[in-house]
Amino acid sequence: MLQRIGILCSGGDAPGMNAFLRAAVRSALDLGLAPYGIERGWSGLLSGDLRLLDSHAVSGIINRGGTMLRTARCPEFRAAEGRQRALRTCREHGLDALVVCGGDGTFAGALELHEESGLPIAAAPGTIDNDLVGTDYTIGFQTAVATAVEAADKIRDTADSHDRVFVVEVMGRESGSIALQVAVAAGAEVVLLPERPEIGAAQAAELLARARQQGKKSMLVIVAEGAGTGAAVAETISASEPNLDVRASVLGYIQRGGVPGSDDRVLATRLGYGAVHALVDLGADCAHHIGEISGHLVRTPLPEVVGRSKPLPLDLLTLVDVTAGLRVTAQDL
């Protein structure tokens, strides 16, 4: 019978994780379960760094960025010996199941632990990359986009004032989700994505040259870090089009922190509630990802989620290309 559950965040932090923890803890208490918060993700589980949480412990955190339990990457957990240490901690503290929040690496570790031990695990998507299947959005993505759009808008002001091209680098080593959303919302002329390698810095230079010929004085290029660094892209554009005044700006970790937006708070709260209830409903068979699709909570077996990436919405790619106004002009008609 389920009595004690462990709750942790692993991998990179994402705005909304605290809202998730608050909902998971209070949902557990509502069901008569004892929730234990595990510090620093899998690392804390290996070292036995965990504590019993009550309702007061998660008061006043729904509007805070980051995670009150802290998070870390844990290479030791990737080895079978490390996972056995984690399992010993669960047994020593009487943990019957785990609730985890993180990205694909977190889910892969959770699945291996379940397969090796049978420990029930419910996993929720907490990553700004929004690259996981089984959910429309991941916790933190919408806030990260809003942060990046606000920065891009301010950079656009300077670009307008100086007739410059700005290359704005956003996060996304393997996923261009943030870059694509920011490009649409900020009205960028060009977006460079790891999923679209055929459009690189050289092609961007050609598009920007055409835009200048059409009379555009300032322009914005959004580049996901996995498609090239902002500095390298700016250098290539400058070398190809020396008449353009090109600057680069890297937004960096400001995208991961900050106050979570209302959408992320609501999503995280629903997923925290849903994760705990999945453990109760599915019992020993629970090794599931808890997501939200079309406004409904969806439980997906972890093997169907781990290692799979969500494709980019092609309609947004089309929107960037069309609304930049570089494909067809009055002279082309």
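Above is the first protein from milestone M3; the second protein from the same milestone is given next.
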Amino acid sequence: MKHMLLASVAALSFAVTGAAVNAADVTLNLSNEYSATSIHGVGDARFASLVAEKTGGSVEVVVHYGGALGYKSADHFDAVGEGALEIADTYGGALGGIDPLFLISSLPFFVTTVEEAELLYKVAEPEFKKVFEENDQILLYASPWPPSGIWATDAKNSTDALAGLKIRTYDKNGTTALNELGAAAVRLSWADVVPSISTGAIDAVLTSAEGGVSGSFWEHFTTFTEIYNYAIPLNFVHISKSTFDSLSAEQQAAVLEAAAETRDQNWAAIPDRLAATYGQLAENKVTVVTSDDDTYRTALQSAGEAALKDWLETTGARGQALIDAFNAAKAQ
């Protein structure tokens, strides 16, 4: 939040008394729909700490977890663009309605390792930045979720197990792919997942093991089924351009430096987070099922291809250019 009057008074005091008054102290609110213990919640706390350190405390980032400010990921883009919110950490699937290019990271089975996911992000990052810039925002950084799987009361390691399954997906790609396999998939924001489980509206959830741990899913489900690293989707942290522009040049440089360090640390954290997550699954008696069925794998890949085809029809030449650029970079 910008305190213009306070800054003016402090500057005047400095001019009159010569005292070392910091005239640019500002508080920035960051909204995150996920919990403080989630990988992105931890990343946001790291970013806030780095900003405070690098600005000597003149910029404070206050992180609001669990949608505490009343915003879901789907609300963030407009809220930041309109200046109602300074910074947001937004799941990429929620940005698919703004521009379907954001759905590239969640294309089913398109990338199956963290290294491939990071390469894909680097290829697509200029396009992502352009969308934010066109809407009065600046992309600070993006970082991944661990690979997605299926939380349910029993194993979902066959096409028969998916038939008619009322399952939550996190974006259009997942809905397309799982419906292709005969499921009754519905897209839900994270804040709506646990209430939907509780009411019986859904019987399963497509998300990472990490996501389920942050939501204490063992209170509802007993099984997490790995599905060949279905996808490694991204969250994007973006700031209002007017807010960024109101900072001093030194503060801007510090914020960007903190963002770059947070990005790198978030990507590097995935292996350790996975190890810790699987330890928590064991502690809470969650059965981890590893799919090992060629027929199932083939069916999943076919469903992924259907989602890719649908995405390319939506994104056209822009989408194909990113796919081609990624394949070329991957081949090097």
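Note on the second protein: Residues 148-231+279-331 form a domain with the D-Maltodextrin-Binding Protein; domain 2 fold (CATH 3.40.190.170).
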